[in-house]
Amino acid sequence: MGKQFLEITEKEVVERVIADLSAKLAKKNVAETEKVIIGEALGRIASTGIFSPLNIPPFDRSTMDGYAVVASDTFYSAEDKPSSLIIKGYIQAGEFPSHSHQYVEKGYCVGISTGAPIPKGANAVVKVENAFEYVDVAMAVEGGEKGKKIKKVKIYKPVAPAENIMLLGSDIKRGEKIVRNGTTLTPRETGVLAACGIKEVFVRKKPSVAIVSTGNELVAPGDHLVPGKIYDVNAQTLNDSVRDTGCVPLFLGIARDSLEEISAKMKESLAKSVDVIIVSGGTSAGVGDLLPTAIEEFGEIIVHGVDIKPGKPFILGMIQGKPVFGLPGNPTSALITFNLFVAPLLRTMLRDYEEGERRKTKRIKVKAALRIFSEPGRNEYVLVNLVKMKPPEEENFFAYPILSGSGAITTLSKADGYIFVEKGREIIEEGEKVEVELFISL
Q1: Which of 11-15, 41-45, 96-100 comes out lowest in average pLDDT?
Q2: How far is Cα 50 from Cα 192, in angstroms, rounded to an integer?
Q3: CA distance 36 to 50
Q4: SS3 of 290, please?
Q5: Distance (Å, rounded) from C-alpha 190 to C-alpha 39?
Q6: Please, are residues 85 and 73 in contact by the beta-carbon 8 Å criterion?
Q7: Which CA distances in Å does 31 have to 93, 179, 183, 202?
């Protein structure tokens, strides 16, 4: 016979149990790190503070196309009375002004591109739009060569020292902390790391999650479907849900309704040293529902049954310090219980308690499009479809309840989220403001 419910536990009690468990597991998991290359670091959590090994920029560089000058040569420049400087040469981005003729002294300048190093002697850059380049034919002076062509530039606007120059280390100083421990690496952080020449970083190891489906009726997608069988939906939805939290799913296949097969999957999960185990199906109090017995073979059951609809036969157990979640077999119930109880634990394990709290599922305020009825005496999660009405108004989303039932596959594809109806509340009136916890991003 199947294992009977140990006790129906209030939803709030289950949430507190999981929050306490999450905090303990997070402390252990934060200490586990691995090294990854920058190309694989997006979305990962830095496990240490990261410091710049060099100054950024590593040299004084021009922020404009123009001319590197001694600023004092331009102080009296004006549209009607421009200063005139001799051009000694040009520096492109990627070059370094090592030649002596590129040293800038008073009366001279060097043409420069955006991003190019500032040559010695220069302390400002005149923008190209404030200058006019021309060729002057020199007259013989003190034995000089008569008729020699000299490149010059007229400067029509003065510049101050350091104008249009990004100084060495003005963006990032060598030894400066550029990423804090616990930071989620976004394209902003990975760009800064690349700018500092950092190729590899230490990140928190992603918790691994074993996923097992149970049921004699299940067939893997792609296999031949014979009469009496259905395709396994939960394997895909739970794999993707685990991945969405930032953790690593490991699907171990389908176990038939036998204690031997379910126990074998438990042993396989433990052998692979996963951090969390999720089993869908086999949680109800009936013949063939053997998951509670299998859990107790290796560990203990903490919760078996919670006062919510759908999702009443939820199980939480512990085996060798690893949480084991038993989720209902029907896809909608499995997804709701995952979002309520499993996802917060996984997010907290991956980050820390405060960050896990901040990354809870997004909620929005909308209006109920219809009167919604709830079952008396039980917390209920009503799946809804959100419709945007026209013309726009302050709350322009309306929530329509999905009435196809939690066992229907189309329920998943239609649902944008769900409304929590607290125990003791039986009716939500049409037009009433409600809070929807989203499955999707709007």
Answers
A1: 96-100
A2: 11
A3: 14
A4: coil
A5: 8
A6: yes
A7: 43, 18, 15, 11
- Is the CB of residue 22 less than 8 Å from the CB of residue 345? yes
Residue 130, classed as helix, strand or coil, is helix
Across 6-127, where does the E strand assignment appear?
33-37, 50-51, 61-62, 66-69, 83-91, 108-112, 124-127
Residue 191, token pair as written in the block: 């760009």
Q: How many helices (H) and strands (E) does the chain have?
A: 9, 28
- Fold of the domain spanning 363-438: Beta-clip (2.40.340)
Distance CA 48, CA 45 (A): 9
Nearest partner of 67 among 167, 168, 169, 159, judged by Cα = 159
Reduced to 3 states (helix: H, G, I; strand: E, B; else coil), residue 133 is strand
CA 4/CA 363 separation, integer angstroms? 35
Q: What's the whole-model pTM score?
A: 0.72
Residues in the chain: 442
For the stretch 89-107, pLDDT in tens is: 999 999 887 765 578 999 9
36-57+174-204 CATH choice from 3.20.20.80, 3.30.1360.30, 3.90.1280.10, 3.90.105.10: 3.90.105.10
Q: Which residues contact 100 (CB under 8 A, 6 or more apart)?
A: none
Lowest mean pLDDT, pick from 103-107, 144-148, 226-230, 293-297: 144-148
> Under a CB-based contact definition with an 8 Å cutoff, are residues 300 and 18 in contact?
no
Greatest alpha-carbon pair distance for the chain in Å reads: 115
**For 207, which DSSP code?**
P
User: In angstroms, how far is CA 420 from the centroid of its own chain?
Assistant: 27
Kindly report, residue by residue over 387-413, the tens digit of the pLDDT: 887 655 545 789 999 876 555 566 667
The structural domains of the chain, with segments of one domain joined by +, span 11-32+205-358, 36-57+174-204, 61-166, 363-438
pLDDT, mean of residues 310-329: 94
Q: How is domain 11-32+205-358 classified at the CATH fold level? A: Molybdenum Cofactor Biosythetic Enzyme; Chain A (3.40.980)
The conformational region for residue 262 under phi > 0 = left, psi -120 to 50 = alpha, else beta, is: alpha
27: enclosing H helix or E strand:
helix 11-30
Each residue of 17-35: pLDDT tens digit? 999 999 888 887 777 889 9
